[in-house]
Amino acid sequence: MYVSDYVSGKLVSGLQDADMEQNAKEVVLSEKEREFLRWVCTELSYKEIAGNMHISPRTADDYRQSLFGKLKVHSRVGLVMYAIKNGIVSI
Questions:
Q1: Domain around 66
Q2: pTM for this one?
Q3: Distance between CA atoms of residues 43 and 16, nearest Å
Q4: Does residue 19 lie in a domain region?
Q5: Does residue 22 lie in a domain region?
């Protein structure tokens, strides 16, 4: 299949514009998600975080998965980096 330079340029440009629009959207976190994010920045396990927040471990897992999706990160380290970069916690 052959795609002309013009068409391939438009395709790449469209993909880049979509990425920039998605990054430009501000992520809105609930107060519970912000609290969970602050706890994640400690050395506590997710089970201990759930106990401190008075929620079930399953609910803590739901918060974690929700934040992974919203923030487009894949690990606890990514959550911590987001929290630091966005002033949710300070070092």
A1: 28-85
A2: 0.71
A3: 38
A4: no
A5: no
In the structure encoding, which two tokens stand for residue 67, read together? Answer: 């934040």
CATH of the domain at 67: 1.10.10.10
Tokens found for residue 86: 């966005």
Per-residue three-class SS string for the chain: CCCCHHHHHHHHHHHHHHHHHHHHCCCCCCHHHHHHHHHHCCCCCHHHHHHHHCCCHHHHHHHHHHHHHHHCCCCHHHHHHHHHHCCCCCC
Q: What is the pLDDT of residues 24-80, one digit of tens each?
A: 457 899 999 999 999 999 999 999 999 999 999 999 999 999 999 999 999 999 999
Overall number of domains in the chain? 1
Does residue 36 form part of some domain?
Answer: yes
* Residue 88 CA to its chain's centroid (Å): 13
